[in-house]
Amino acid sequence: MTLTADGGQLSNDAGLVLFQEFLHRINFRQLANQCLKLPDQRRFWKASMIDIFLEKLLLDVAGYLHDSSANDWQRDPVLAATLGSSRLVSQPSLSRFFKRLEDADLDDFRKLIWQVAALAFRLSGQSRFVLDIDSTHCDTFGNQERSAFNAHYMAYGYHPQVVFDQDSGLLLDALMRPGNEYTGKEADKFVEITFSRLSALPQSTSVIIRGDSGFAAPKFYEMCDTHGVDFLVRLKANSKLGKLAETALVDCPPKYEESKCVYHEFKYQAASWGKARRVIVCSTHTADELVPWNHAFVVTSLASEAPETLFKTYR
User: Fold this and answer.
1) CA-CA distance, 302 to 308, in Å (whole number)?
2) Does residue 57 lie within any of the structural domains?
3) pLDDT (tens digit per residue) in 110-154
4) Collapsing DSSP states into helix, strand and coil, what is residue 56?
5) Is residue 277 included in any domain, yes or no?
6) What residues make up the domain containing 71?
7) What is the rounded average pLDDT for all residues in the chain?
8) 70: part of which helix (H) or strand (E)?
9) Which runs of E-coded beta strand occur in the chain?
10) How far apart are CA 141 and CA 158, in angstroms?
11) Is residue 88 domain-resident?
12) How confident is the model at residue 33, as a pLDDT?
């Protein structure tokens, strides 16, 4: 595709033509129409709900953080030519669009996220997946619905769960939650959706999922076991884990003036676990520090790989 400028009106956002061409090539509007059942009780309108959604998407891609920028876009010659001036709406229309959205619409957006990722996986034939599950923080301002204070971030907002694929970098799912929800709350139910979707791809797949200590829970491990997904999950240090690690290192005390790193493992079963599981340990000593060892613990279902290799995968 070639872009030329031969005079006339200019635009700061002509580069969006390339992104619009990408959306056209993957039939994004068709995907959106299939996934989104956006409520619309308007009697007189020019732009459809899908048109408004696509304009908001383009605003975000272009880096416009305020909806008021939509008013300027109505006068942009390139956007009017490529989107059609009748499809461009003003800031009040964007505000009304968000007010119409309900919980069911957020679930539809999650389906659209997956459909875009699934298209990429079918085209590439990717069969190996290393998933990263985490939570993140979205600031809110004013009296936003279900906004809450999060002590970890020291801010008001939302606390969604997200899961990404490492190799492609694609977002596979996102669950909006109030700001005071715990990081790993019901993470087993959240990832089960992604596990089922990956297993339904036309190619055979192997899946590993990684998570920090917020996702260290028996239900999470059991969900991975049920779907044949291997996991690497960080464990919070406790006295029992510490004693097991120290016992394993009795025969190799560190030298005060030298840094040292030792990888080892043992079987461990917490009181809430249904069975003992493999725990790999990275024990490090930093030169000139009085503390002999600092331990990092990861529980895993992977049985054959060396602890050092698995820590590299986890990181």
Assistant:
1) 13
2) yes
3) 999 999 999 999 999 999 999 999 999 999 988 888 999 999 899
4) helix
5) yes
6) 16-100
7) 91
8) helix 69-73
9) 128-135, 138-139, 148-150, 155-158, 161-165, 171-175, 206-211, 230-235, 260-268, 277-285, 294-300
10) 11
11) yes
12) 94
